[in-house]
């Protein structure tokens, strides 16, 4: 039996993944701050202090920030699709595809951070988001 509100699954999935990335960020950063003796006591010197830390330590945190950007549109369009009752199998599959692509983007960025691959995954997620937006627009027009 499929869930009565199938778009909630992808929304919950991406929220859960965002929390995973937040934990990952802290799990990497906090020990690094101790290891590299980063002094955060003077706000005027924090940016200089952070230069002690290798760039790869910040990858998970940068990805966490990215999960606060484009996915906000995803959550908004899921709400619209849900409100329009546009929850057919193709729409739900696209929503899950978006979540999978964002997880893939996170894994690429937080691990080896190959920029060209990361961009391709990001672009693919943007195309899926555009398709979801198009489906919402068509559902809205057809119900008018």
Automatic annotation (TrEMBL):
It is found in: Membrane. Its main location: membrane. The keyword Membrane applies. Gene3D superfamilies: Membrane associated eicosanoid/glutathione metabolism-like domain. Keywords: Membrane, Transmembrane, Transmembrane helix. The chain crosses the membrane at residues 6-27, 74-99, 119-138. GO terms for cellular component: membrane. The keyword Disulfide bond does not apply. This is MAPEG family protein. It comes from Dissoconium aciculare CBS 342.82.
